[in-house]
Write a structure and sequence with these properties.
By secondary structure, this protein is mainly alpha-helical. It has two domains: 3-127, no CATH class; 153-206. The chain has helices at 3-25, 30-34, 47-69, 73-90, 108-127, 153-167, 175-180, 188-197, 199-206. α1 packs antiparallel against α3 (47-69) and α1 (3-25) crosses α4 (73-90). It is rod-shaped. The N and C termini lie far apart (99 Å).
């Protein structure tokens, strides 16, 4: 066997093995097929293309064996030259070809099973509620509206006046002046201090939002 015959035989063996692997990859979906290896850009071969390639490989192998048995070393050399020239200048760029497949580390069935398991894990993770950034025990309690102590009658009176005035439609900036003019009420400056300190409690009782 000449060196050209050996190279041709090795090439045909690699092509045949690649076609067999692609035939097994037909069971994979597109996502799993894309992860088998880093494929060049191509149109994924279907069953018809693979069967056509397998038939032509069988015929080419038959011709190569026949010429080799005749001692025709030039046949393998001519095929090598043709393959070289075709890749160099005879072919236009096409997407429909069968890229060489490396021997897989896992079977197509295992690759398909792994892809399905990964998809299930992603779907399960997507259904879980997002984790809170802070645990419930560490959350600060909502602020409670502060109210006056029972012994502070002046403060309680001002708060009651403010609630009543707001319910009558008075605006917040008017409250201190109106309340200070009532009998037995603190001065306007003191009324303002009480209003600012207990504004949340006043508005909660009056059920009106802040201005």
């Amino acid at each position: 066997m000449s060196a050209a015959d050996e190279r041709l035989a090795g090439l045909l063996n690699r092509w045949s093995a690649s076609v067999d692997q692609h035939a097994r990859y037909l069971a994979l979906d597109d996502a799993a097929y894309a992860k088998v290896q880093d494929w060049p850009k191509h149109q994924r071969p279907n069953g018809w293309v693979l069967e056509l390639a397998r038939a032509r490989l069988v015929e080419l192998q038959r011709l190569a064996d026949e010429r080799k048995s005749r001692g025709d070393a030039g046949f393998a050399e001519a095929l090598e030259l043709m393959a070289f020239l075709t890749s160099l200048l005879g072919s236009e760029h096409v997407d429909r070809f069968i890229p060489l497949a490396r021997p897989p580390s896992t079977s197509p069935q295992e690759a398909l099973r792994n892809e399905r398991q990964r998809a299930r894990r992603q779907a399960t993770a997507a259904m879980k509620p997002a984790a809170s950034a802070r645990p419930a025990a560490a959350r600060k309690p909502a602020p409670v509206a502060e109210g006056p102590t029972g012994g502070d009658r002046a403060t309680a009176t001002v708060i009651a006046d403010a609630v009543r005035l707001i319910s009558w439609g008075r605006e917040w900036p008017q409250l201190a002046g109106l309340i200070a003019r009532l009998a037995n009420r603190p001065p306007e400056a003191e009324v303002w201090k009480i209003l600012r300190k207990y504004r949340a409690a006043i508005e909660a009782q009056a059920r009106r939002p802040r201005d």
